């Protein structure tokens, strides 16, 4: 038995990270549809789910708001088996709020809460 550890080669370390060139077979070239996972926002306000995101938004929260967010995340995990990160939870909540705003306009929950501040 060799005592030497096998390390990955350069081709494994520096593999291409871009999409492969289109093939002649249109069925093979069709991109895969993202799979909707349970817990995403339903209706018009769909969140992006687990995909690579192009943009980043930084949100500042109080300690209490962050604890409430973590409590909600852990409750979903415990009661529904939903394993998700804080970012996904926030994306779903924003999608729901925007869908409600789109549907109800000034009578939406978002407009009501923003008017109360």
Please sum up the structure shown.
By secondary structure, the protein is mostly helical. Helix content is 44%, strand content 0%.
List keywords for this structure.
117 residues; mainly alpha; 44% helix
Describe the model.
The chain has 117 residues and is mainly alpha-helical. It has a domain at 56-116. It has five helices and no strands. It has helices spanning 10-13, 26-29, 63-80, 86-104, 109-115. The model is unreliable at 32-44 (pLDDT under 50).
Could you tell me the strand content as a percent range?
Answer: under 5%
Derived structural class: mainly alpha
Helix-strand string: HHHHH
Number of helices: 5
| Strand segment count | 0
Summarize the biggest pleated sheet. Answer: none
User: What low-confidence regions span 5 or more consecutive residues with pLDDT below 50?
Assistant: 32-44
Global shape:
elongated
**Spatial gap, N to C terminus:** 70 Å
Mean pLDDT: 78
- Using only C-alpha atoms, the radius of gyration works out to 21 Å
Helix percentage range: 40-55%
Region (Disordered): 1-56
Biased composition (Low complexity): 16-41
Protein name: Cobyrinic acid a,c-diamide synthase
């Amino acid at each position: 038995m060799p005592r030497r550890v096998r390390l990955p080669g350069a081709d494994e370390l520096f593999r291409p990270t871009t999409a492969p060139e289109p093939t002649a077979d249109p069925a093979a070239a069709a991109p895969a549809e993202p799979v909707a996972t349970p817990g995403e926002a339903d209706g018009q306000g769909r969140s992006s789910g687990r995909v690579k995101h192009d943009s980043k938004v930084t949100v500042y929260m109080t300690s209490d708001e962050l604890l409430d967010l973590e409590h909600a995340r852990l409750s979903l995990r415990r009661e529904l088996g939903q394993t998700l990160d804080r970012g996904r939870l926030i994306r779903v909540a924003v999608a729901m709020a925007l869908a409600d705003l789109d549907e109800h306009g000034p009578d939406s929950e978002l407009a009501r809460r923003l008017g109360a501040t």
